[in-house]
TrEMBL record:
It comes from Polynucleobacter yangtzensis. S-adenosyl-L-methionine binds at N11, L13, G38, E59, D82, N107. InterPro entries: KsgA/Erm, rRNA_Ade_diMease-like_C, rRNA_Ade_Mease_Trfase_CS, rRNA_Ade_methylase_Trfase_N, rRNA_adenine_dimethylase, SAM-dependent_MTases_sf. Residues 18-192 form the Ribosomal RNA adenine methylase transferase N-terminal domain. SMART domains: rADc (SM00650). One of its GO terms (molecular function) is methyltransferase activity. This is Ribosomal RNA small subunit methyltransferase A. It comes from the Bacteria.
Length: 258
């Protein structure tokens, strides 16, 4: 019997209704290239595998890797590794050109969700879709619109790169052990109209970090260092970071990187 390890964020899904809803949202066609981050004991893995010719698993916990290797299931490849260090771009490019969509899915360990989402951005060009279970509060920030108090650095950066929807809310009772927080499933589709170069992306990171550095302060203060290059309107100077649209941040990044 596997005992859940807190340090690996192990909360195993046990509600069959929720499990099948998530698998239906992932909607795997047999020829899709899917990698599941953190299969744990297989709540999502086994129903996914029923629909797929092939499934890759990426798991950090050595005992769980051994558990999957012993099962020796047809169509399953088990990779022992840390998702924060895994080269998702190489994985996706390896599949590119073959029929079928590239999807990254998982009920993620909540303690690493933000760094993992940013790590995945570097592979977004080659990935068709991501479906993740995360802490509900994080998903709410990811999808928040400008003007909302949840609109944050995470919202701007991820909305610049992905179209995202909160697609399912999941209560703690769906897991064993139960997490202390509510969860939600988010679907992320890389934007096809994304055109930022690496330099422009870095400029976006800088200007967004500066804008949100002191949430309550006006942009006049937070963006002082960039003021002579950005043509901020009077209204923008008095606005706060959460009032500016993602598109406007992108425009600023392009100016700063030029
Ligand atoms: N998918 C299973 C389920 O829904 O019941 C388990 C989900 S559990 C929340 C998170 C899983 O991610 C665990 O299996 C854990 O060992 C694994 N994990 C934690 N940190 C990881 C990392 N850095 N890289 C890969 N897997 C990780």
């Amino acid at each position: 019997m596997h005992r859940a390890r807190k340090r690996f964020g192990q909360n195993f899904l046990q509600d069959n209704g929720i499990i099948y809803s998530i698998v239906a949202l992932i909607n795997p066609s047999a020829d899709a290239h899917v990698i599941e981050i953190g299969p744990g004991l297989g709540a999502l893995t086994l129903p996914l595998l029923e629909n797929l010719d092939h499934l890759d698993l990426l798991e950090i916990d050595r005992d769980l890797v051994a558990f999957w290797n012993e099962k020796n299931l047809k169509g399953l490849t088990v990779i022992e590794g840390d998702a924060l260090k895994f080269d998702f771009l190489a994985w996706a490019q390896n599949r590119a050109g073959k029929k079928g969509l590239c999807k990254v899915v998982g009920n993620l360990p909540y303690n690493i969700s933000s760094p993992l989402l940013f790590h995945l951005v570097s592979a977004a060009n080659s990935i068709d879709e991501q479906v993740f279970m995360l802490q509900a509060e994080v998903v709410e920030r990811m999808v928040a619109k400008e003007g909302s108090s949840d609109f944050s650095r995470l919202s701007v950066m991820l909305q610049a790169r992905y179209d995202m929807d909160l697609v399912l809310e999941v209560p703690p009772e769906a897991f064993d052990p139960q997490p202390k927080v509510n969860s939600a499933v988010v679907r992320m589709i890389p934007r096809r109209d994304f055109t930022l170069s690496d330099i422009q992306w870095s400029a976006l990171e800088k200007v967004v970090a500066a804008a949100f550095s002191q949430r309550r302060k006006m942009l006049r203060t937070n963006l002082q260092a960039f003021a002579d290059r950005l043509n901020l309107t009077e209204i923008e100077l008095k606005a706060r970071a959460q009032d500016i649209s993602v598109d406007r941040y992108i425009e600023w990044a392009k100016v700063l990187a030029a």
